[in-house]
Each structure stands twice: as C-alpha cells, then as structure tokens.
Amino acid sequence: MLSKAKTIEAVEVMATMFPNAACELTYHSSFELLIAVMLSAQTTDIAVNKVTPKLFQDFPTPEAFVFAEVDEIMADIRSIGLYRNKAKNVKACCALLIEKHKGHVPKTMEELILLPGVGRKTANVVLGEAFGVPSIAVDTHVERVSKRLRICKQSASVLEVEQALMKKVPKDMWTATHHRMIFFGRYHCIARSPHCDQCPLFYLCQEGQNRLKLN
User: So which residues are the catalytic ones?
Assistant: First the structure.
C-alpha cells in the first residue's frame, strides 16, 4: 500500500503534469453547478456542457424547474445518458431546495445528500468547488487511479477510497487532489489503455510495472 508520503509525492507529480486541473463543467452559480454535477453521472462533462446553456436559459431557477413538466426538462437533456431519471431527480431536487432551503443550495454534506439525485460525490464537488470546503469527490477516475497506485485496497468501496485519500493527503490539498487525480485518470491513466510506458509515476505504480511485464 502506498504510504502517506508517497501518496503526496504522487499527487505533486500529477500537479506538474496538469497544473491547470480544475472543474470542467460550465456554471455560473452554486445552483447551476449542483444541477450540472447531477447531470454528469455516467456522462462526460463535455456532453453536459453542451446541454446546460439552453437548460439554464429555459429553467434559470429552482422554481422554474418545479413549475416545468418533466417532459420539458427531458427535452433539453435528451442527448445525455439516463436523461429520464435525471430530469425527474432535478425537478424533485429543486422542489426540496425550495421547501427546505428557500431555494438556496445548502453548504453541508448532511443537507446535500438528502436532496434527490445527490450522493457523496456530487455533494463533495459542490462543497469544494462552490463553497471552498476541503473535499475529495471520488468519481470513476479517482477510484481507478487510487486503486492502480495502491493508495487504497483493490476491494475498497467508494467511501473507503475517499477516506483513504483524506487520511493520506493534507486537508488543504483535498480539493486540488480531486482535480489532479481526475485529470490524470481522464487524460493519462485511462481505463483501457493507460500510458504506463511514458508515465512519470511508473516508479511508484506496481500495477503499471506488472502490466508492462505481461506485455
């Protein structure tokens, strides 16, 4: 298992590779970010960014979503995966924002995860990106990279991956670590054909070394 010091070292190498790593979703408010992250599940940020300009033009507020028919919301997001369920969740989420939070996005994990369609990953993105709360959102890229580098156990759940990273990375690096690991996983340590032969973290990566031996 990668030590705390080596984990930090790995994250710092990722920082040199992707110095501009940041959220790639387009948004102009915490509300728009919340909806965009909800829509991004099992869909690329690029795909979400294509639909949100019209979506937020048609439905600029939680109230607008609540008064809309689900079919109207679906029409704006039809090109992304799981659009039917996402449209229903967005409408239900907005209803609860109005009922419980006066239309504002809450600023705590406990409150965010009670919103329909919002899990820990979405909540952590909103907390870190919109409100500056140190957080690590574990998406497929963060999970894959964490397991390949042996930062956590191969059998670790998403929550256990998050906890391992929080334990090994200083709190003031959490949000930056999240972005760096996403970029590293999205553009370098990709799922099917990671660039192990040209990876600056090869010396730390047992899986990469084993992969090249097999080839």
Answer: 121, 139
- Amino acid present at 147: K
Q: Is 213 left (phi over 0), alpha (psi -120 to 50) or beta?
A: alpha
Cα–Cα–Cα angle for 167, 22, 43, rounded to 5 degrees: 95
Task: Please tell me the distance from the alpha carbon of residue 186 to that of residue 110, in angstroms, as a whole number.
Answer: 29
User: Model-level pTM?
Assistant: 0.94
Residue 22's nearest CA partner among 125, 168, 163 is 125
Q: What is the token pair recorded at 108?
A: 């705590």
- How far lies 25's CA from each of 22, 47, 151, in Å? 9, 10, 27
Residue 44: which domain range? 30-131
Using the 3D structure, point to which of 116, 131, 146 is the last residue of a domain: 131
Integer Cα distance of 72 and 45 in angstroms:
22
Total domains in the fold of the chain? 2
Structure tokens at 65: 């979503």
The answer to whether 122 touches 140, Cβ cutoff 8 Å, is no
CATH number, domain with residue 153: 1.10.1670.10
pLDDT digits (tens, 9 = 90+) for 140-193: 999 999 999 999 999 999 999 999 999 999 999 999 999 999 999 999 999 998
Q: Which of 83, 107, 131 is the last residue of a domain?
A: 131
- Give the separation between CA 25 and CA 33, rounded to whole angstroms: 8
Distance CA 66, CA 62 (A): 6
